[in-house]
Amino acid sequence: MSGVPRNPGEPLDLERVRAIRVNKSAAERRAATIGTRRTVKKQWQAAWLLRAMTLIDLTTLSGDDTPGNVKRLCAKARHPLRPDIEQALGVESLHPTVAAVCVYHAMVPTAVAALEGSGIPVAAVSTGFPAGLSPFAQRVEEIGASVQAGAREIDVVITRGHVLTGEWQHLYDEVRAFREACGEAHLKVILATGELATLTNVARASWVAMQAGADFIKTSTGKEGVNATLPVSLAMVRQIREYRERTGFLVGYKPAGGIRTAKQSLEFLMLMNEELGREWLEPHLFRFGASSLLTDLERQLEMFVTGRYAAAHHHPMP
Amino acid sequence: MATVAELFQTMEYGPALEADAPARAWLAAHDAKFGHFISGQWTKAGKTFATHDPSTGAALAQVSQGTAKDVDAAVAAARKAFPAWSKLTPHARARHLYALARMVQKHARLFAVLETLDNGKSIRETRDVDVPLVARHFYHHAGWAQLADTEFAGYGPIGVVGQIIPWNFPLLMLSWKVAPALAAGNTVVLKPAEFTPLTALLFAEFAHQAGLPAGVLNVITGDGDTGAALVNHPKVDKIAFTGSTEVGKIIRRATAGSGKKLSLELGGKSPFIVYEDADLDGVVEGVVDAIWFNQGQVCCAGSRLLVQEGIADKLHAKLRARMEKLRVGPPLDKAVDMGAIVAPIQLERIRTLVEQGRAEGASVWQPSWKVPSKGSFYPPTLCTDVFPSSTIAQVEIFGPVLVSMTFRTPEESVALANNTPFGLAASVWTENINLALDIAPKIKAGVVWVNATNLFDAAAGFGGYRESGFGREGGREGMWEYVKQKAEGRGQRVEGVSTPRRSSTIHHRPSTISSAAGGIDRTAKLFIGGKQVRPDSGYSRGVVSPKGKLIGEVGDGNRKDIRNAVEAAHAASRGWSASTGHLRAQILYYIAENLDARSGEFAARIASMTGATAAAGKREVQESVRRLFTYAAWADKWDGAVHSVPIRGVALAMHEPIGVVGVAAPSSAPLLGFISLVAPLIATGNTVVAIPSEPHPLAATDLYQVFDTSDLPSGVVNIVTGERDALAKVLAEHEDVDAVWYRGSAAGVKAVELASAANMKRTWCAVGESDWLDAADGEGRAFLRQAVQVKNIWIPYGE
Prior knowledge:
Number of domains of chain A: 1
Oligomer: heterodimer
Structural class of chain A: alpha/beta
Helix content of chain B: 40-55%
Largest sheet of chain A: 8 strands, parallel
Number of strands of chain B: 33
CATH topology of chain A: TIM Barrel
Largest interface: A-B, 40 and 39 residues
Strand order of the largest sheet of chain A: 7-6-5-4-3-2-1-8
């Protein structure tokens, strides 16, 4: 994805895992002021909104997905911004696109074909998504099949039970096997944080996933009761920071689910910028798992250009 | 101008200024020149001085320098408004306070912007912290106004309250002062700080528009001289002050003996303690909220980082990384973490202290970026290689400067935390609840935040231990500062109670003593550390009956005896304060039992000393026994409270003993008066150095044997006989005595209050005699409240 070396993983350090503690109230207080300590206005805001747009894994993960709606999504992925707005912003030369398109395995061939020549990778959710409780061998095979079909990124789910019962070695082995099955494809490990009960569990699972070789750690499938939140994000990105300090490797972060508004997306970008730094505002280290977010970003950018509040139906739907 | 395409690469934040036009329009509407707000009207501006925008140095407005005449007018207005205001029904006052809360909310942004202009603090803080807390304070106190009759039954307003507030939270401190004062039915003369007078003036104007009657709230502006005129004004009944310990001491001395009620919220050097199992990323943000909140100009700022040695380097590295990300700039910018220091003089003080720290060997670290060169800005600063002996570890810097020291064990962390004259606040960071709840009570501070910092709410009391002042603001405990007993001073003297006698001369010559025991000499020594010891002076004092007959001798105590007694009291304090209420109750019951067994002897003693009838003597002993029962009963019931604060968590308002308390017992009721003061103190875990009735000391000295046979641990009660006022002064001056209760002469009260300023010890003084036999006057909650201080421990929870 970039010149940054991939995280190869390292042996599991159980002592470190068990020492991790996250104070929930403290994390919540920090999260509550991320959006109040920072803000962007005018052209700075436009730049940040555009940045958010280019960091989206534009996603459809529905039982009723068909080649038709997936192709429509891919067309939008190539041209997320209406050309007149692009022009007015003066960003045509940047050729903004979303970061990737994320689909179920069955839709991978359609998406790959639809995105051909765009440089936009296809990501496949995998390993028995969303619950991750199908037979282990089958889950590993599923990764291979998606890679075979052209997916360059694989979003896997973990066995939540391993976290809830403290079976860190099993979690490590599971993710390690997923990583091997990925080969050259990049591995995003979905922790399903809404089902991990505590921020401490989230942080520990993040750490184990990174030691097992995750390229990205990701919050949610979008199917849990609670999706990406700022406190959960803090718990995860602080482990990413610690991992870099200890190993030198940079691991990406992907909040997913429930991020629908431009304002929300800016809070996440500010969180990344503040906790990890500018480097993490690039598609090889940060993604939004989102779908409707795109239209809101487009509306806000149009408003920046025209000065008038915009209507969703003026923007080509994904 | 940067293009979107360029900014897309740099991802800078850019400027994001809050508009200040409405605030400037309000200033312009007053021609940027203000008089005082007295009796619902603006006075004509007198001699004025400028108030500035600290971020630019530009003058914002001219405000008047309050003169003695202005203070007179304001006090007179408050005095005039008092009868009607205090007679309003609680509900009517509640409606007024509610209207003030609504008023603040309606004009929230105007208040926030004006505050930022005048003070230099960030608009984020004024908008998200200060102003919402102001509204909350008025809402909460609308509730106390509503409930005043039932929740403070028997108590009423004090009268005219003079309030002097600081520049660091101008409007918030106004609300902390004004809301409880008005809720209780007092009227107010408030003087805002000279650096930041504007929001108080805006508030006064809007409060009047919101229907607050003329004269109920008067605002006068000016400098320290105006404040002094208010403090010294004879028609002011109470002074409430927030500011430096230095000025607090001046006010304590100025009001000594005046009868003015006093509450002081002073400086701090609050410890921020980090144990090795803490969530260090959470800690880092806690430090940001502790010392880089309001540019560190916070009396309770966690300015002394105490970190367990093994994790110190790691935490310092995390802090430096975080500091690099902080943004300092124009305070109206919605994306800065810190604004400007309030004034050039304060900036200079910070610079000087940091340079002194560097000169004394501290490593001073500041981020790589530069603060704006125009205006009063100072960068976040971390000082390591600092020790308790360093100036910057002891002195309140009142700026964004954190000093860090290490400890090895929890015990050492407490010792370092308490190694300061201050005692305002503390933060304790650990994921171990056992440790947190062990440490919190051991820290001498009025507020302890567990895994948090700088949490405030109107429902929880805020205020200091030690030289951080006394009195609380917020919650029920804060309301007590603004009420007094309605029937204070009734029943001054009642028949049957022994009367005081002043004369008591030192005898150097052998004399004949008619002892109740007959024959064998029973000269009472002093009672120190559980032992009867000879007075250091080597002199005795004769005790004479009303008829002039020598009936006994007691030791003539001096300052060295007091010193020894205080040391004994300290030695006993740790164990006694940590003992259970149940144990203290048992001992008090036992004292009562043993006293009762000797009631005849004590009654005779009282009668012989005071000339009271045998029946009166007997009654005093019976009442003393009863009073001991009362405090034995209270010993395990004087509970604190759990405050309902708006967090997921609890705020525990714990009643903690004050420590070592000096007692000067009244002259009359030589047994009952003594017991009435000593019993509530020891019931609540204090240890005592008591001076018995000067003319009639023998009832107290007879208690030695009662104490000895009642399992009272050595040093819990120490008794030094002698000249009351001379000994009381030594106690009041003693820097390791935490409080003095004095009953005696007006001159004595003044001397005690004056001397108490040395270490800001609490004093509870009264002139003249109470009716000790009247339980309504002589015992109960009023005594217990004085015997403890409230510590609010905030414990957020959630996993």
